[in-house]
Amino acid sequence: MTGGVAMGGCMDLGAVAPEMVLAGTALALVPAAGWARGRWRRLPAALALLALLAAMGLTVPMLTATPREAFCGTYAVDPFRAFYQLVIEAGAVVSLLSLASHFRASEQEPHHPVALLMATVGGMGLAAATDLGLIVLFLQMVSFPSYLLVLLVRSDGPAQEATLKYFLYGAAALAVMAYGLTFLFGLTGSLNLRAIGAGLAGADRAWVALAFGLVVVGYGFEMTLVPFHVWAPDVFQGGTAPISGFVSVVPKAAAFAGLLRLLLEAMPGALAAWPSVLALMAAATMTFGNLVALRQASLKRLLAYSSIAQAGYMLMAVAVAGRVPQALPAIGYYVVAYLLMNLAAFTVVAQVERMSGSDGLATVRGLGRRAPWSAAALTLALLSLAGVPPLAGFAGKVFLLLAAIDGDLAWLAVLAAANMAVALSYYVAVIAEMYFREPERPEGMAPGVGYAFALGLCSAATLAFGIAPSVLRGVAQLGATLLR
Amino acid sequence: MTVPLTAYLVVGALLFAIGLYTVVAQRSAVMILMGVEVLLNAIGLNVVAFWRFTAPGDYAAQIFAILVVTVGAVEMAIGLALVLLLYRQRRTAEVDAYADLKR
């Protein structure tokens, strides 16, 4: 903010070390992906995996950092950022594992890691950005590569349609949001979130409400909140299953981090009545997602509506994040649980889809006998999504409900509990298909080391975090400290 | 004679309204892209006007404007490539032709 004079004092490359590792690898992989032939086509995915692990190693120390600003107040170094960046990196690692198996020996094999790394960097930047310009930039950076990922198989008809819808909705929603951000700048004369927070106190309420209303459109798009969710079912259904998994996890986690930072830093108190607006959106999102999910016959579409409902549960705690200190760790815990169970579910769907060429509910019929391990992993993921103890999804839902009750949103907590009960029926319906119906096809499962690793990691963590929630809860507690 | 801030904001709001209407009402993907481009120009105009009237000493807002232009360029590159690919496969760029995925 101080301009060119203090340039030397603003540079702090350590603050962006994880991002630089990933962005550098992604850039180096652009030509490498073009050259790769034969056995070497596996190399980009392996390098991307190494880069992600190195970036995670560089992010971990920031979990205990004293909150500070880098790059002239445009970038935050705080535990909050480190936590969400780790979540995003972990999501990318698991997605990469299942993508590597899915596109094994196909034309797309060397290309997907490039787009995946770019989207990951965008998401990580969004979790740390404290400047309106950077927020616009990183939101686009997480979206553009996601569009390209959905269109990875270029001749795939449904994927083309999905990408067109994703792109057009995304372009419009993010432009509307950036227009809203310009009003935050105009009202306060600053692009820095905390300076905006200080300046908005004396600003005209109507303008603040207008700006907030426009800004929510962009975040609502990324987080699939009703009424900005329209793209999600089509994109998740049209995209290849592991990519739908990635798109359902990484942009969403990044947008939650970005929205939380914006609300807590730039809109302290309850400016523009954001807690009430978000509470109403949470109620609409979870109810709509669950009711529509009840009538789905496509697994990817079912998971899409389920992920819309899950976003509603998380938003419930965001609505009280300003006044309940327990809300931030609860969201942090749930984002991790959501990542694990959603990616596990999409990985199994990927295996099924690769084997049978379809993702209809009938394709998992008798899976319990055909592929016991995958069936067990999908069962675990679905039960966790439904909130059955002792899995991570259960503990996470309890934390979210407690936060809502502490924030005097008892009506919303009751509605959420009712929603979880309704949701159980469509999750159990899939499990029943797997175990209590005769298989229609004799074949087993698409094999792959990547699938196995992804499923093993997710299932083990879902169980471990569910049985001992205090460990993850402690880390999420660390990650609740943010620059204010 | 100086033009007041309100005048810029009104033009910005008009651009925004035109862009949004184009995005919602047009059926051709190319025209929708044009609507998005108009939306981005509304953002640019707003930022530069606000910069001139509320924080003329802080050049960070100009960087914001440059970022918006950059984002627009990248968006068009991806968008036009996508429309071209779709057109080659199906011989149409009307968005209504792409409604095979279940509602």
UniProtKB/TrEMBL annotation, chain A:
<dbReference type="GO" id="GO:0005886">
    <property type="term" value="C:plasma membrane"/>
</dbReference>
<feature type="transmembrane region" description="Helical">
    <location>
        <begin position="330"/>
        <end position="350"/>
    </location>
</feature>
<dbReference type="InterPro" id="IPR001750">
    <property type="entry name" value="ND/Mrp_TM"/>
</dbReference>
<dbReference type="GO" id="GO:0008137">
    <property type="term" value="F:NADH dehydrogenase (ubiquinone) activity"/>
</dbReference>
<feature type="transmembrane region" description="Helical">
    <location>
        <begin position="207"/>
        <end position="231"/>
    </location>
</feature>
<feature type="transmembrane region" description="Helical">
    <location>
        <begin position="371"/>
        <end position="389"/>
    </location>
</feature>
<keyword id="KW-0874">Quinone</keyword>
<keyword id="KW-0813">Transport</keyword>
<feature type="transmembrane region" description="Helical">
    <location>
        <begin position="448"/>
        <end position="468"/>
    </location>
</feature>
<keyword id="KW-0812">Transmembrane</keyword>
<keyword id="KW-0520">NAD</keyword>
<feature type="transmembrane region" description="Helical">
    <location>
        <begin position="20"/>
        <end position="36"/>
    </location>
</feature>
<feature type="transmembrane region" description="Helical">
    <location>
        <begin position="112"/>
        <end position="129"/>
    </location>
</feature>
<feature type="transmembrane region" description="Helical">
    <location>
        <begin position="82"/>
        <end position="100"/>
    </location>
</feature>
<feature type="transmembrane region" description="Helical">
    <location>
        <begin position="166"/>
        <end position="187"/>
    </location>
</feature>
<protein>
    <recommendedName>
        <fullName>NADH-quinone oxidoreductase subunit N</fullName>
        <ecNumber>7.1.1.-</ecNumber>
    </recommendedName>
</protein>
<comment type="subunit">
    <text>NDH-1 is composed of 14 different subunits. Subunits NuoA, H, J, K, L, M, N constitute the membrane sector of the complex.</text>
</comment>
<feature type="transmembrane region" description="Helical">
    <location>
        <begin position="302"/>
        <end position="324"/>
    </location>
</feature>
<dbReference type="InterPro" id="IPR010096">
    <property type="entry name" value="NADH-Q_OxRdtase_suN/2"/>
</dbReference>
<feature type="transmembrane region" description="Helical">
    <location>
        <begin position="409"/>
        <end position="436"/>
    </location>
</feature>
<keyword id="KW-0830">Ubiquinone</keyword>
<feature type="transmembrane region" description="Helical">
    <location>
        <begin position="43"/>
        <end position="62"/>
    </location>
</feature>
Automatic annotation (TrEMBL), chain B:
<protein>
    <recommendedName>
        <fullName>NADH-quinone oxidoreductase subunit K</fullName>
        <ecNumber>7.1.1.-</ecNumber>
    </recommendedName>
</protein>
<keyword id="KW-1278">Translocase</keyword>
<keyword id="KW-0813">Transport</keyword>
<feature type="transmembrane region" description="Helical">
    <location>
        <begin position="59"/>
        <end position="87"/>
    </location>
</feature>
<feature type="transmembrane region" description="Helical">
    <location>
        <begin position="6"/>
        <end position="24"/>
    </location>
</feature>
<comment type="function">
    <text>NDH-1 shuttles electrons from NADH, via FMN and iron-sulfur (Fe-S) centers, to quinones in the respiratory chain. The immediate electron acceptor for the enzyme in this species is believed to be ubiquinone. Couples the redox reaction to proton translocation (for every two electrons transferred, four hydrogen ions are translocated across the cytoplasmic membrane), and thus conserves the redox energy in a proton gradient.</text>
</comment>
<keyword id="KW-0874">Quinone</keyword>
<keyword id="KW-1003">Cell membrane</keyword>
<dbReference type="Pfam" id="PF00420">
    <property type="entry name" value="Oxidored_q2"/>
</dbReference>
<feature type="transmembrane region" description="Helical">
    <location>
        <begin position="31"/>
        <end position="53"/>
    </location>
</feature>
<keyword id="KW-0472">Membrane</keyword>
<dbReference type="InterPro" id="IPR039428">
    <property type="entry name" value="NUOK/Mnh_C1-like"/>
</dbReference>
<dbReference type="InterPro" id="IPR001133">
    <property type="entry name" value="NADH_UbQ_OxRdtase_chain4L/K"/>
</dbReference>
<comment type="subunit">
    <text>NDH-1 is composed of 14 different subunits. Subunits NuoA, H, J, K, L, M, N constitute the membrane sector of the complex.</text>
</comment>
<keyword id="KW-0560">Oxidoreductase</keyword>
<dbReference type="GO" id="GO:0030964">
    <property type="term" value="C:NADH dehydrogenase complex"/>
</dbReference>
<keyword id="KW-0520">NAD</keyword>
<dbReference type="GO" id="GO:0005886">
    <property type="term" value="C:plasma membrane"/>
</dbReference>
<keyword id="KW-1133">Transmembrane helix</keyword>
<dbReference type="GO" id="GO:0042773">
    <property type="term" value="P:ATP synthesis coupled electron transport"/>
</dbReference>
<keyword id="KW-0830">Ubiquinone</keyword>
<dbReference type="GO" id="GO:0050136">
    <property type="term" value="F:NADH dehydrogenase (quinone) (non-electrogenic) activity"/>
</dbReference>
